[in-house]
Amino acid sequence: MIYCPSKTNEQIIKIFSALASKSNNVLATRAEQSVFDAIKKTGLFPKARYEKSARAIVLEQKKLKPSKSILPIITAGTADLPVAYEAKVTAEIMGQQTELVCDVGVAGLHRLLSHVPKLQKANVIIVVAGMEGALASVVGGLVSCPVIAVPTSVGYGASFEGLSALLTMLNSCSSGVTVVNIDNGFSAAVTATLINKKIDAGK
Amino acid sequence: MIYCPSKTNEQIIKIFSALASKSNNVLATRAEQSVFDAIKKTGLFPKARYEKSARAIVLEQKKLKPSKSILPIITAGTADLPVAYEAKVTAEIMGQQTELVCDVGVAGLHRLLSHVPKLQKANVIIVVAGMEGALASVVGGLVSCPVIAVPTSVGYGASFEGLSALLTMLNSCSSGVTVVNIDNGFSAAVTATLINKKIDAGK
Amino acid sequence: MIYCPSKTNEQIIKIFSALASKSNNVLATRAEQSVFDAIKKTGLFPKARYEKSARAIVLEQKKLKPSKSILPIITAGTADLPVAYEAKVTAEIMGQQTELVCDVGVAGLHRLLSHVPKLQKANVIIVVAGMEGALASVVGGLVSCPVIAVPTSVGYGASFEGLSALLTMLNSCSSGVTVVNIDNGFSAAVTATLINKKIDAGK
Amino acid sequence: MIYCPSKTNEQIIKIFSALASKSNNVLATRAEQSVFDAIKKTGLFPKARYEKSARAIVLEQKKLKPSKSILPIITAGTADLPVAYEAKVTAEIMGQQTELVCDVGVAGLHRLLSHVPKLQKANVIIVVAGMEGALASVVGGLVSCPVIAVPTSVGYGASFEGLSALLTMLNSCSSGVTVVNIDNGFSAAVTATLINKKIDAGK
Amino acid sequence: MIYCPSKTNEQIIKIFSALASKSNNVLATRAEQSVFDAIKKTGLFPKARYEKSARAIVLEQKKLKPSKSILPIITAGTADLPVAYEAKVTAEIMGQQTELVCDVGVAGLHRLLSHVPKLQKANVIIVVAGMEGALASVVGGLVSCPVIAVPTSVGYGASFEGLSALLTMLNSCSSGVTVVNIDNGFSAAVTATLINKKIDAGK
Amino acid sequence: MIYCPSKTNEQIIKIFSALASKSNNVLATRAEQSVFDAIKKTGLFPKARYEKSARAIVLEQKKLKPSKSILPIITAGTADLPVAYEAKVTAEIMGQQTELVCDVGVAGLHRLLSHVPKLQKANVIIVVAGMEGALASVVGGLVSCPVIAVPTSVGYGASFEGLSALLTMLNSCSSGVTVVNIDNGFSAAVTATLINKKIDAGK
Amino acid sequence: MIYCPSKTNEQIIKIFSALASKSNNVLATRAEQSVFDAIKKTGLFPKARYEKSARAIVLEQKKLKPSKSILPIITAGTADLPVAYEAKVTAEIMGQQTELVCDVGVAGLHRLLSHVPKLQKANVIIVVAGMEGALASVVGGLVSCPVIAVPTSVGYGASFEGLSALLTMLNSCSSGVTVVNIDNGFSAAVTATLINKKIDAGK
Amino acid sequence: MIYCPSKTNEQIIKIFSALASKSNNVLATRAEQSVFDAIKKTGLFPKARYEKSARAIVLEQKKLKPSKSILPIITAGTADLPVAYEAKVTAEIMGQQTELVCDVGVAGLHRLLSHVPKLQKANVIIVVAGMEGALASVVGGLVSCPVIAVPTSVGYGASFEGLSALLTMLNSCSSGVTVVNIDNGFSAAVTATLINKKIDAGK
Fold it and tell me: How many Å apart are CA E135 and CA E133, to the nearest integer?
């Protein structure tokens, strides 16, 4: 996996090639379209594809067996989608099946409540929310599995680029909520997939 | 009304006397027991009483007619009670009837949901919550009246003395939520009572 | 209502259409001219108009009866106008009559004082101010109705994108002042209109 | 479970009694010795004990079957121990076996490295660290299971009561690290035990 | 002049003696009663007196000629008095005549307005205010002389120990307002007196 | 005077015209070249000129008599010059004579020391400094007149857009230092000129 | 040496010329390509070269004797390279030999450990790291010489432009770690070279 | 070396004994008198002494040969002394000769200038300063050796417990200044002694 910001296209291509040469799946996150164009132009990775909504470049060289478990990825609002898609792409390249549940922020609680039965079957849930980030606490109170909360940098003035949602999630009064960095869908997905892998293994 | 912190007992007694001399009701907020003792010792205010749970001294010199409206004051947890009681005492000395709804934080959503029919009848609601402060958004999404959110300084480390709850409430994605300063039950109660007074007047 | 930032034009059009299909009035806030152009290009909303000064797209499908009450929206300076216009457009699409009082910041107190008689007739007032945000406290001291304070991100260095005005307003020593998020004219207008609706209903 | 700070002894005893009456195990965290004394004085809970190093009151009414899995709880320094003990007591009352690995901060890397084989067998690991909080990243790089990082409020001046460790952990460049609130050993233990329960169930 | 906090009594006495030995006036600010007691106990400074309301020890060894100018020191509320008294004592020991104008915060604008004619005669004005600190801007708009603003650490939650008032004052939209550190009545008084000295000299 | 940022060209021209119509001198600060071009294009202000280094538009309609006093404006480094020029232009349009002393930051103390005799003759001094902002304290210790410190937003990473210099200056241990907002050369110049005017009047 | 940001090309050329005229080596840091082009266009400095990876302009007019000592410059990740190169160029123009050790962040500890023997021979080491900045502590624990830590502004959301790495490094529990400003490779290199010079002199 | 805060007396004694048993010199920093009393009471360390001004417990079991070099430790004011003494005691127990230069803050520059010839002979200098912390930059500009800056938590309101001095020092415009954590005299002394040891070795 490669985190693209602050790297030049040359550096990204070099790391991408090194990882690809070992026949691994490769994922480059926060990649601009121009980075993908540069990678395509090398002609070396015909199978690489650009997932625009996730801002990610995906090179799937070996298809992993789909997981038994399904990982719910829940978003509060439309503007949280890019981070949710980053989590989705990351999980899927590791073989994890996912289900995206969109636009169920706490201002419209009934939409969330209709998904509860499904959520209660999960081993672990990812909650992606900006603005006030209250969704993680509410979901945490409705299920008994771990919730991985991803604050996003979405919001008005005093959201301070995601700080408000981050603090909300850290202060969650629901047990079982842990937090990753702002907009870090990747890390949430890796952690959730690690947990599911161990549980699936025992089934 | 007197805000006691940073004032000496002498100063508080002086202001208290000045206000009381006009036959008004007098309220001293954030008052330690020792302040009340000092006021009692003057012998001047036999009717003054100390509301321990609200940390307030109340001198009710004229009984106001009880309001038609009832003001719900909702708290997320037990530790938010002192601020809720400050709001309750403040509203009541202005003649506003109140109803306290305790311990309905978002980690136990079903407790809150059982109160929704009652909340939907209110003209305005006060929500008192510390930690992640998510309760204001959730309540705001369940009713169509204004919600006045009071962040409290309750919480673990990164709650930063109420800052986390304050930011959450400011970033609420529910319409109709406005915010007062951390722990400021007094100001929330005054605003809510002003609103109810105007509405009651028309009924 | 749609908050446009962080949403793609496709997403905005989709939500806009969904809302419009129910014959509701639709409001899209913080919309660039280019968003409006994209909406016009669909040819679906001939009645949609762009309110440039408010940065808002308005689709008024049903004309609401004008409110009995008039909502004063007061600004400290010229640079606060876009936020004030967002409040104005929002209130008006909900049927609320408004009156804009501009450029009455506390550095020129006499300008404000000449408006006091009018302000004292209001049920609720919106105050929009950046820089030091002192206007909310001053207005709050001059009237006996609730004041909804909107800090704006206008100002020199240590205004920290509206944080200074936000803190000022939260710390207001005037009773009855509540605060919304930085630059959030929309939320202030919704709250004020909800209050006025209830009061108008009784008259 | 009860979080004691900001609650009066009366409130704690009331909640403690309510929880105990359902024959559950009860845990009161951040409890001063004086809280325990008040609980003992009621005479109602002869089996309650005070875990001084964890600052917790434990009432174990039903002994849970010990887990198959062992949960490593790692601390950087001696001063992080109270938080680690809170995690240990919490996990154990839920039936989770634990192993405390103390004083393996990154300034003495060899001490940590000697524990790596053991750590690599775990399903999930709790890392408790103050000051610069670097231990979570280092452990995260040495194992392939999830790491739950608990920042502590231990440290010199610019540690800002745990903020420094919190930020370090949120910015961890190791995959699989998630974070809980400052000093929140309780929440880390609950999450880790939830994960282990599901994995143990499959074995 | 000696700033007492963080100094031991021994250190304070040593510096006090050194300054006194040159027949200067000596001022020790932020001095606890116990510091004064220690100084008295030396028996060396029979003329030293303790100004309790200003938390200052004053040793006036030479009486300076009273200034022609009068320095207004204005406070927003009762709780700002200790800082105002520190300014007053500091100015007076330098020979500056002062006039204290108390409790004229912006929530009660009419009290302030009655003092305007007097304020307009001053060469320079000190404004002491906590909470939202709006008084400095309002005064700055009413006079045409420099205003030295002293934020105080008085206030509710989000005043952050004076930070809110400090930011308000720095962002003042009135010309001629400069700011000193939180609670620093001493520095404001020195600056104001330096200005008045030069102006008085020319008269 | 007009502060240009956040205002449209139309608004600036309107205010500019209103001020100019009273035959006053007019100053527009933080003005882009494009604002000046728009003003020129109106053809109404042939005498308006653009001071590029100060980012200011100046319309001098009446020449004020030059002041007796000379106001030193000192900068720490080359990058502080735009703010210093803003102060210079502002003072000069009010008739205040100025002298710019450039590039005398504390890393090269000898350059500063050579200017001390001149500085000691001033009634008041403006110090403009970014990065660590130490120059204000050093100058304050070398002279006995008031120093008005202007922090600038110049500097590396942890200068936080001027916050570091601002805090340094507020914490100055030299008496007589007061502070204005970050980059606010205008306000420093107005205050300094007000002081000099009163002193010059007496001479 | 010249720090380019906030300076105009004219100012940079003027300072560059002044420094070059004394036959010194000249270094301009944080220089855009366009600055270098402007310098080349003057035709005055045919030997000036642009070090793109270090964002620096170098004019080496006298070749210094290479140092006996070798200065290791260690980076955590690829994105830290520009800051490391700034340190490298700075040290080399002062005659200091350097060795760059790249991409040895704590998430892959084995890569770092393979360099330990070499690091233990150094007199002083520069560690450049963003994100969580843990590398400085780990290196500090592995060697017994001083470590100069350079936080970089690289990272996800809550890295706050380098603040996270800065705090981590300041809170390092390893002895001998000192810190420079965010991204300030220049200052780290100067300090390290000063230390090495004195040690080399004695050998 | 032991950092005492957050450790119980039992823990400190245990670590102290472990370190002492290897015949090393032992240093316990930030130790209250009561900690020393507890250590004395064990009867195990008759040679342990308490350095009150440095708040340190010293057990010197082997006398190290005094260094050739002398390390200047400079303080801005009296209140910075405890941190300076911590540095002094730390250096001396490692055999480093020191010279304390007190009370030479930048508000009284002449006092500092009289020490310059002595400072210019040093290999490395420690500067301890609170409030605005400007002393480090000024010293850095006067010498050509490395300066290790120690911000202290001394100061008025907006010093924010040393944050102001820390930022000032990080933003120093003098080359060769590096910074340690707030109040961390220990770490500065260790680093300075490490540097001197290498230089002394070559002489």
Answer: 6
pLDDT score at C52: 95
User: Is the Cβ of D102 closer than 8 Å to some Cβ of chain H?
Assistant: no
DSSP 3-state of D138: helix
Distance, in Å, from the CA atom of C5 to the CA atom of C18, rounded to the nearest integer, reads 18
Spatial distance between the Cα atoms of H140 and H176, rounded to a whole number of angstroms: 7
User: What are the beta bridge partners of residue A29?
Assistant: A3
Question: Contact, B53 vs B85, CB < 8 A?
Answer: yes
- E157 to B183: CB separation less than 8 angstroms, yes or no: yes
Closest chain F residue to the Cα of E163, Cα to Cα: F167
Residue B197's nearest CA partner among F4, C173, C144 is C144
- Residues 167-196 in H contacting D (C-alpha not used; CB under 8 Å): 181-184
Q: Which of E163, E164, E173 sits opposite C105 (nearest CB)?
A: E173
* pLDDT of E203 higher than 80: no
Q: Distance, in angstroms, between E7 CA and closest chain H CA? A: 5
DSSP-derived letter for residue D132 is: T
pTM: 0.94
Partner residues linked to H28 by β-bridges: H2, H57
Instruction: Compute the average pLDDT of residues A78-87.
Output: 95
Q: How far is CA C83 from the centre of its chain?
A: 6
Task: Let me know: does F188 contact F126? Beta carbons within 8 Å.
Answer: yes
* Per-residue pLDDT at D48 exceeds 90: yes
Binary contact (A79, C161; C-beta < 8 A): no
pLDDT band (50, 70, 90) for residue H100: very high
Question: Cα–Cα distance between G51 and H64 in angstroms, integer?
Answer: 47
Burial of G49 (0-12, 13-18, 19+ CB in 10 A): middle
ipTM entry = 0.94
Enumerate helices (H) and strands (E) in chain G, giving the number of each. Answer: 8, 9
CB contact under 8 A, C184 and A156: yes
CA distance E196 to C2: 57
Token pair for A92: 């899927």
Residues in chain G within 8 Å Cβ distance of H123: 198
Residue B66 distance to chain A (closest CA, Å): 33
Contacts with F128 from chain G: Cβ below 8 Å: none
By C-alpha distance, which of D115, D120, D71 is closest to D95? D71
Q: Nearest CB to H199: which of G177, G188, G199?
A: G199
CA-based nearest distance F107→chain G, Å = 13
What pLDDT, on the 0 to 100 scale, is given for residue H180?
Answer: 96
Q: What is the reported pLDDT for A108?
A: 86
pLDDT per residue as tens digits for the range B5-20: 889 999 999 999 999 9
User: Would an 8 Å CB–CB cutoff place G127 in contact with chain H?
Assistant: no
B-D Cβ pairs (cutoff 8 Å, strict): 28
Residues 6 or more apart whose CB falls under 8 angstroms from that of H67 comprise H95, H96, H97, H193, H196, H197, H200
Higher pLDDT, B173 or F49: F49
Q: Which of G1, G2, G3 to mutate to test the interface with F (most CBs of F within 10 A)?
A: G3
Neighbouring C-beta atoms of residue E25, cutoff 10 Å:
18
User: Closest Cα partner for G103 from G147, G71, G135, G68?
Assistant: G135
Q: Tell me which chain A residues have a C-beta less than 8 angstroms from the C-beta of D202.
A: 199, 201-203
> What residues of chain A lie within 8 A of the CB of B170, using their CB?
132, 157-158, 164
Pairing of strands C26-29, C56-59: antiparallel
Q: Are residues H5 and D157, on separate chains, in Cβ contact within 8 Å?
A: no
In E89-129 the beta strands, taken as DSSP E runs, fall at: 97-101, 125-129
B81-to-B85, B104, D12, D30 alpha-carbon distances in Å: 6, 12, 13, 19
F2 phi/psi in degrees, rounded to 5 = -125, 130
CA distance H97 to H192: 11
Chains interfacing with F (3 or more CB pairs < 8 Å):
C, E, G, H
